């Protein structure tokens, strides 16, 4: 059993802290956001993450998990301090390390004995050394400490599962002793440990995320070519994916990647490369393809309607992917303003993210949690997120609800034959258009 303090109680900090408690450690999750901590103390989970609430509540009840804003005290009591604060994108594209530096200062000021300081936030190569320097200067040699880089690979929406069943843990450390402590901590989660130095661990995180982003932009480029040559990208991806060297995952063509990490981390890696005089052209192209891909559904709509003015468009899904209410860099943030700009009348459905989305779209659109009501009487329906209820919707009913039978699917949720059988005009990504013989466009 270790005494662990986790700095930052967001997706990463809360989930990691909870999982460390679940495996028998004494964990205190800290944040500067008082509302977040008060809510957590009162049993309210600030993020939507399947299964998390139950595990948090169990560990709180069994007194292994607590929450506080008293960060200095939490630091003094801990043997291991995890840093899981945000590293948002600065104007320049690089990662903004303000929160990480603030935490490092507080740790230095409160260092009262040997501690292992573990960075879990996604940070540019060299940040581990930077943290070491800040803690060193603020603690004036009062106590020894080590810094470890232990990047996080969880996905939102399956964060708890991903942590409890992680495929590997990466541990980059300044000492064997510190590395061994963190390796021990991860034994309940995985047997696969990559032990390395700080810089390599920091690089593994960016290299992994940008590789996944590259797969997505690659398949989206292939999808765009498929549309021009009459091929079907879902079959192309299937045919590619059986090759173990390629792998079937992350070959789903669509409206591009969003979320709190791929967009920011791909730009940050380009910046890291620039800093050392390397022009990372491939990553730049990945970003460019992704930026363009988001607006594909709008151009498909515009190819059907000469003008979108006054057209009622039902938008299905606002979150950047299913099972999360996270709106950070969601494709909907680009697509909806474009529809509004063209004076379309947008009604949006999302089972979870409406509240978060309202902060971005305000009153410019209407929000609903009733899928079929959203579609009722719409001139066209556009799918932006492959939520389960959207993927499983009854296409016959969709056609009956719609004023015009037009479905633009940005996530390739449906089989072409199914859409044809339902009598829909169905446009998806990288696949032939399903036409409808009747003249329905006005
Ligand atoms: N969200 C995700 O799925 C993943 C995120 N990451 C990385 O993990 C890091 C954290 O990401 P999220 O959890 O999504 O961020 P988040 O924004 O959800 O949470 C960060 C938390 O840190 C708190 N904070 C800021 N300054 C603080 C301080 N001085 N002391 C204590 N708390 C402080 C904020 O109030 C906030 O609650 C980022 O670097 C991100 O790139 C890595 C893998 C997955
Ligand atoms: O560093 C991070 O924050 C995390 O970023 C991603 O996780 P996440 O952003 O939660 O979501 P993903 O499931 O990876 O999806 C990202 C985006 O790519 C899109 N995507 C994904 C897969 C695919 O085949 N096609 C595709 O368009 C999704 O719709 C979504 O918008 C990584 O998968 C995690 O390993 C990583 O820890």
From TrEMBL:
It catalyses: UDP-alpha-D-glucose + 2 NAD(+) + H2O = UDP-alpha-D-glucuronate + 2 NADH + 3 H(+). NAD(+) binds at residues 31, 36, 87, 122, 156, 264, 328. It holds the Pfam family UDPG_MGDP_dh_N. GO terms for biological process: polysaccharide biosynthetic process; UDP-glucuronate biosynthetic process. Pathway: Nucleotide-sugar biosynthesis; UDP-alpha-D-glucuronate biosynthesis; UDP-alpha-D-glucuronate from UDP-alpha-D-glucose: step 1/1. Its EC number is 1.1.1.22. GO terms for molecular function: NAD binding; UDP-glucose 6-dehydrogenase activity. Keywords: NAD, Oxidoreductase. Substrate binds at residues 153-156, 205, 250-254, 258, 321. The keyword Oxidoreductase applies. Residues 314-416 form the UDP-glucose/GDP-mannose dehydrogenase C-terminal domain. The active site is at residue 261. It comes from the Bacteria. Belongs to the UDP-glucose/GDP-mannose dehydrogenase family. PANTHER family: UDP-GLUCOSE 6-DEHYDROGENASE TUAD (PTHR43750:SF3). This is UDP-glucose 6-dehydrogenase.
């Amino acid at each position: 059993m270790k005494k662990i303090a986790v700095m930052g109680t967001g997706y990463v900090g809360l989930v990691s802290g909870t999982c460390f408690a679940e495996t028998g450690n004494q964990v205190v999750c800290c944040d500067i956001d008082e509302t977040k901590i008060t809510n957590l103390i009162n049993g309210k989970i600030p993020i939507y993450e399947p299964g998390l609430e139950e595990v948090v509540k169990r560990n709180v009840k069994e007194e292994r998990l607590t929450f506080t804003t008293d960060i200095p005290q939490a630091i003094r009591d801990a043997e291991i301090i995890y840093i899981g604060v945000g590293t948002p994108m600065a104007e320049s594209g690089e990662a903004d390390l303000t929160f990480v530096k603030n935490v490092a200062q507080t740790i230095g000021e409160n260092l009262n004995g040997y501690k292992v300081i573990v960075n879990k936030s996604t940070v540019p190569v060299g940040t581990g050394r930077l943290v070491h320097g800040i803690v060193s200067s603020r603690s004036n040699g009062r106590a020894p400490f080590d810094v470890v880089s232990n990047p996080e690979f969880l996905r939102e929406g399956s964060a708890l599962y991903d942590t409890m069943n992680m495929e590997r843990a990466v541990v980059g450390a300044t000492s064997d002793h510190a590395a061994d402590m963190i390796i021990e901590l991860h034994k309940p989660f995985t047997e696969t440990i990559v032990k390395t130095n700080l810089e390599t661990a920091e690089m593994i995180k960016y290299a992994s995320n940008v590789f996944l982003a590259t797969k997505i932009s690659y398949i989206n480029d292939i999808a765009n070519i498929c549309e021009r040559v009459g091929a079907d990208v879902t079959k192309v991806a299937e045919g590619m994916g059986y090759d173990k060297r390629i792998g079937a995952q992350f070959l789903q063509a669509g409206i591009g990647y969003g979320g709190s990490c791929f967009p920011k981390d791909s730009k940050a890696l380009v910046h890291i490369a620039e800093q050392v005089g390397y022009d990372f052209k491939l990553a730049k192209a990945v970003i460019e393809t992704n930026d363009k891909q988001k607006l594909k559904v709008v151009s498909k709509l515009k190819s059907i309607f000469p003008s979108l003015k006054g057209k009622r468009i039902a938008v299905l899904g606002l979150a950047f992917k299913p099972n999360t209410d996270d709106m950070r860099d969601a494709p909907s943030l680009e697509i909806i303003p474009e529809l509004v700009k063209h004076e379309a009348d947008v009604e949006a459905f999302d089972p979870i993210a409406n509240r978060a989305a309202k902060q971005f779209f305000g009153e410019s659109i209407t929000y609903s949690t009733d899928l079929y009501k959203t579609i009722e009487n719409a001139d066209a329906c556009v799918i932006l997120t492959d939520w389960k209820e959207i993927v499983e919707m009854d296409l016959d009913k969709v056609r009956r609800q719609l004023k015009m039978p037009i479905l633009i699917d940005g996530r390739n949720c449906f089989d072409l034959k199914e859409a044809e059988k339902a009598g829909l005009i169905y446009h998806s990504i990288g696949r032939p258009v399903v036409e409808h013989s009747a003249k329905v466009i006005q």
